[in-house]
Amino acid sequence: MNQTPLELMEGLYCFPDACNVYVLRRGDCALAIDFGSGQWMDRLPAIGVKRLEHVILTHHHADQCAGLEGRDDWPFAIHAPNGERPFLSPEGIEAIRKRRLAANPFPPSYSLLDRGLTNVQYDLGPGSRELFWGPTRVRFIATPGHGPNALSAILDWQGKQIVFCGDAAHAGATVWRPYCLEWHHSHADGPLAAWEGVRNLASIAIDLLCPSHGPVVADHPRKMLAELAKKLMNLYEAKGNICPGEPDRYIPVETITPQIKKVLPSLYQYGMNGYLLLSKSGEGLVVDPQRNAHQWLEDLLDRLGRPRVTAAIASHYHCDHTDGFLLLKERGGARICLHPWLGEVLEDRRRYDLIWPPDIDVHADEILPERGEWRWNEYVFQVAPFPGQTRWHAAYQTTIDGQKVFFGGDSFQPCSRWNGTGGFCSINDSRFRDGYVSSAQLVLDWKPDLLCNGHGTVFRFRPSQFRKIQKWALKAEKAVLDLCPTGDLEKDYYIHHPGAPAPHPSRRDNKG
Fold it and tell me: Are residues 293 and 199 in the same domain?
């Protein structure tokens, strides 16, 4: 790594490292903004620095501070934003890892340190939480995005007002690793918080904007930030409704109990996600088995005279659609029948480090065709990939009691449920053209009468809903792409899970 510093102005240097490390020199003393790997410290004597006195961290990500790990006796003060202790301290990092291991929640951070830091002063924040270094007053403004507590530092230097913005902004009105703005897969709190921070940053005087990655911005930085704020708002809006103005089109169902609904004479919905399909043979098939809904399935089976569940399928790998498989197999001998994309994930749930897998591996008794037909008793199912909320999603359609019924999981919902979808995010490998657009087209091609999707949504098909979804998906793709520094979603946005198949070259989500 080239550690040759770039002198931005007298006494202000930028060291290229895991992130840009900015060093201010006064006499033979210095203050640093962020730390990176720490290799740059060997070059301090070359710029006349004998003593580093302070290190200011803009946020907790590992590329900002990994070089600080392993010592608790640094000869300088380490300062971090108030609120970053749970993400920087050893005990905080351990708690996050245990929580994720136990519950597989959406990651609270995309870039944690391995062990954490000690002897950090969590004393930085907007308003009066300032830092004084000799005559220099370092001020702070909240610029969340790469975490909820991220800050930008502001100080006066050589008659100029300098802003060190961390990863709040990147040259070209973009954001380094824009997936870090996704604090949840369906909520837009991250982009909204980032928009507010960048908007506030754009309102102050800036002579030189110094981001954690990429070049410094000296040419109209406030104009660039204003443009970035607009792009962030576009992302916020893309996280909004995917089929605005569409009626929900829920169908009337018969309530057996609060947790059991009769959809059709041969089809029941139970719990949050499960469906039970009855065969003339007296057997049952379960779609999307969830463990904590098994009691309601047992109640339903009792009411129906105990038909034997002989098969189970799932729309996608998330635990609330798959963690009941083993109960069905152990208690009734049901065959686990998986779409190959789901089988790929579920047979080794830790292979790709995905969110919300079941807490135990699931092995298929039968692998369904990737695209084609599959028969269970008298029912012939159409089967196809159905990427959207996750890449690892599948769809099934068959005729039940004279109705073409589509089982599609969480990608598409009625308009008033969440935002019409289970949400998109990089860590789920959600796709746009080769995901939401193609999956909406599948629904348009199959023309179901009813959609029996996740979370109890049973509604009628109307082409207008899915045509709106296709238009939305292209806008959402552009909103994400506009924030990518290289203009390439694969390089900047998607988190490439180890071992995961790469997208087909002819179908990459990109400018064209």
Answer: no
pLDDT in tens, 224-267: 999 999 999 999 999 999 999 999 999 999 999 999 999 999 99
DSSP 336-378: EEE-HHHHHHHTTTTTTT-SS--SS----SEEPPSSEEEEETT
| Same-domain pairing of 320 and 267 | yes
Tokens for 313, please give them: 């399928």
What is the model's pTM? 0.93
Domain count, the chain: 2
Same domain, 29 and 88: yes
Burial annotation 304-335 (CB, 10 A radius, 16+ → b, else e): eeebebbbbbbbbbbbbbbbbbbbbbeebebb
Q: Which domain holds residue 170?
A: 6-238
Query: What residues have CB less than 8 Å from 134, skipping those under 6 apart?
Result: 26
Question: What's the Cα-to-Cα distance from 24 to each of 29, 151, 159, rounded to whole Å?
Answer: 8, 18, 14
Query: Do 113 and 69 meet the contact criterion of CB atoms below 8 Å apart?
Result: yes
Tell me if 244 is assigned to some domain.
Answer: no
